[in-house]
Design a protein that fits this description.
about 20% strand, binds molybdenum atom, disordered N terminus, Sulfite Oxidase, Chain A, domain 2, single chain, about 325 residues, binds the ligand Nc1nc2c(c(=O)[nH]1)N[C@H]1C(S)=C(S)[C@@H](COP(=O)(O)O)O[C@H]1N2
């Protein structure tokens, strides 16, 4: 089993050693001698892998939260092998196959635009802006499938308040890396690169919006947007830009990548809404990834089930018009 390439493991991440000790203790507790140790190792390793542990370095400390505790988690395997990340190819498998090339350390994010405190932020600094939290969120792709993902991250509001937006700042852009050298999709005219997504300032300040740096207690795999990506659980998945290098505060509503690609199909808000269909398909229900052919699709909920928390952000707006 792969715990992570030695180059992936930084000094602060003690998991391999901890796992080693745990296994040794277990082997001892089971009263197994050295001859059995090898078998003990591999079966424990298998169990760990089934749980989705041990592929990326563990995040040393983060606090659990009440978000989504009632949900059944999508498997680590499904979360990390069924992806949308067009920079690495347009099929669901390609990101996992191709994103290994992405070098996520060192990594800096430029915080800029209509703010009093523009700066460049290293990924390690970002992870220290606020205590890391685990948030289990339902995620709904505009294509009609969904997952439940245990993210680890910080509230986006924390970064926004540190940046000190000026009175002109009304929207925030999140710009992803576009590196032709490692991203085969960027060499092709699939989308207008770099991938750009954006939120209204008050949406970005909402407590549910986070910058995720991990999942299942581990550092994010590249295919899920390492080292940092946006997660906005009441919106369709495409709002959650991956591998972010630039966060820019602006006055005018940005033209996001998907608005530019197909303005009739993808609007700025992209709130999950079962009563506003995509022009080419219904949004009334969804397929939960991990279910099988015999499992029924499940009804899609308004704002992906987060209406109680976020509906007030859109009061008085015609959500058919502002889709
Ligand atoms: N940079 C970038 N971010 C992106 C995408 C992309 O193609 N490029 N795809 C989006 C879409 S459509 C979805 S559904 C989610 C998928 O996130 P996941 O693969 O971690 O589940 O990422 C979003 N973020
Ligand atoms: Mo999506």
């Amino acid at each position: 089993m792969l715990i992570g390439k030695p180059s992936d493991i930084v000094a602060s991440e003690i998991t391999p050693a901890r796992l080693f000790r745990q296994r040794r203790e277990l082997i001892k507790a089971a009263g197994l001698g050295t001859m059995m140790a090898l078998g003990g190792w591999s079966s424990l390793g298998f169990a760990a892998q089934e749980k989705g542990q041990g592929r990326r370095p563990a995040i040393k400390s983060y606090k659990k939260t009440a978000y989504g505790q009632e949900e059944k988690l999508t498997s680590y395997r499904d979360i990390t092998t069924y992806n949308n990340f067009y920079e690495f190819g347009t099929s669901k498998e390609q990101p996992a196959e191709n994103a290994g090339q992405l070098k996520t350390s060192p990594w800096t994010i430029s915080i800029e635009g209509e703010i009093l405190k523009p700066r460049k932020l290293g990924i390690e600094e970002l992870m220290k802006l606020a205590p890391l939290e685990e948030r289990i969120y339902r995620m709904r792709c505009v294509e009609g499938w969904s997952m439940v993902i245990p993210w680890v991250g910080i509230p986006l509001a924390r970064l926004v308040s540190l940046a000190q937006p000026t009175a002109n700042a009304k929207f925030i852009e999140f710009i992803s890396l576009a590196d032709e050298a490692v991203m085969p999709g960027v060499r092709a005219p699939i989308l207008d690169w770099p991938y750009l997504e954006a939120l209204r300032l008050d949406e970005a300040m909402h407590e549910l919006a986070i910058l995720a740096v991990g999942l299942y207690g581990e550092v994010l795999p590249a295919q899920n947007g390492a080292p940092v990506r946006l997660v906005v659980p009441w919106k369709y998945g495409f709002k959650g830009g991956k591998s972010i290098v630039r966060i820019r505060f602006v006055e005018k509503m940005p033209q996001t990548t998907w608005m530019r690609a197909a303005p009739r199909e993808y609007g700025f808000y992209a709130n999950v809404n079962p009563s506003v269909d995509h022009p080419r398909w219904s949004q009334a229900n969804e397929r939960r990834i991990g279910s099988n052919l015999f499992t029924k699709r499940i009804p899609t909920l308004m704002f992906n089930g987060y209406a109680e928390q976020v509906a007030h952000l859109y009061s008085g707006m015609d959500l058919r018009k502002h889709f």
